[in-house]
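Appendix C: a fully annotated inverse folding record. The material below is reproduced so that readers can follow the format used throughout the book. The structure is listed first as tokens, followed by the designed sequence.
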């Protein structure tokens, strides 16, 4: 039991009392270091005062601001980045607004608060339940990523940062998707987006779609969607067209079939026009006293434009025998 009490009173390898002594000594050193960094910033400001917002960072002489600060940094043995950051931080904290006992690092983080009064008030108001500002709390205050994430959103941000490399992101995603408990918590819309991203490759999409359409319930729901049903019909027509072209290119009886086919094409064209008129006659009256939403109207107008362009194409083909399409019509038909 005494050994457990002794271990509880330790921080790392030192006793709690010794740890308190170390903290007190280091706070003195941090305060000294903060004064030094502010002094560097003040002198850098003297060499190169901050320019007005939008002003050019150029001195009256031959040197740009960067040249001057780079020379200063080299002459005192520090990096340009350190001197430049100290200059900027010092410019945000007039001497009478700097708070003793608050590190230069915290001043530097809170310096990104653009409003002066808000910034000066913030540094004197540590987070609720905290005696003093820490770099982590300061980063939370200005909306930056923290080194030790606590909230779910902070952890999510940290993961995103670590997964900026595409290979890392792919591996993490693959691992997470193997965890049923994780997948179960993803809402339906996000699952749909995940599937869409994973099936951007046409070969993968075709393989997945074929497998899904073999499931009767999935196939029924998919075919209840007008666009999906139209695309399937379009694919069937396209496949038939390709088969017909292959037949005409390779079959010895193709010339005899073509003369018959022309008559069939005439009948198909008349039938298609009749079917469109009949379908429109059934559907349009149903719109009485109903106002479509903005998105719905946009979709209808786009399709009417396709129909109108297609009708012009039909008339041209019938009158001239030319079936070539211009670029605009080709684009409209391709969208289908």
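Designed amino acids, in order:
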């Amino acid at each position: 039991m005494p050994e457990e009490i002794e271990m509880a009173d330790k921080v790392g390898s030192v006793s709690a009392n010794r740890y308190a002594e170390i903290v007190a000594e280091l706070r003195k050193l941090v305060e000294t270091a903060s004064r030094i960094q502010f002094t560097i910033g003040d002198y850098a400001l003297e060499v190169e005062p901050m320019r007005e917002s939008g002003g050019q960072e150029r001195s009256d002489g031959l040197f740009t601001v960067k040249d001057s600060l780079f020379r200063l940094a080299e002459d005192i043995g520090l990096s340009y980045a350190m001197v430049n950051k100290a200059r900027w931080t010092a410019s945000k904290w007039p001497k009478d607004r700097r708070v003793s006992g608050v590190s230069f690092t915290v001043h530097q983080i809170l310096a990104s608060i653009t409003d002066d009064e808000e910034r000066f008030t913030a540094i004197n108001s540590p987070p609720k339940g905290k005696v003093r500002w820490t770099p982590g709390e300061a980063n939370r205050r200005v909306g930056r990523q923290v080194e030790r994430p606590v909230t779910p959103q902070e952890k999510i941000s940290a993961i995103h940062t670590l997964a900026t490399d595409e290979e890392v992101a792919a591996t993490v995603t693959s691992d997470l998707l193997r965890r049923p408990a994780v997948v179960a918590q993803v809402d339906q819309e996000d699952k749909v987006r995940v599937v869409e991203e994973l099936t951007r490759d046409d070969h993968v999409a075709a393989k997945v779609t074929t497998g899904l359409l073999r499931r009767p319930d999935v196939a029924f729901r998919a075919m209840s969607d007008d666009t999906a049903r139209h695309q399937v019909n379009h694919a069937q027509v396209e496949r038939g067209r390709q088969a017909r072209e292959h037949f005409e290119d390779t079959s010895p009886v193709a010339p005899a079939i073509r003369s018959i086919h022309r008559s069939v094409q005439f009948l198909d064209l008349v039938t298609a026009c009749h079917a469109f008129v009949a379908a429109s006659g059934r559907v349009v009256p149903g719109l009485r006293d109903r106002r479509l939403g903005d998105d719905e109207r946009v979709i209808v107008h786009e399709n009417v434009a396709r129909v109108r362009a297609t009708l012009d194409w039909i008339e041209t083909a019938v009158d001239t025998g030319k079936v070539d399409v211009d670029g605009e019509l080709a684009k409209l038909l391709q969208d289908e």
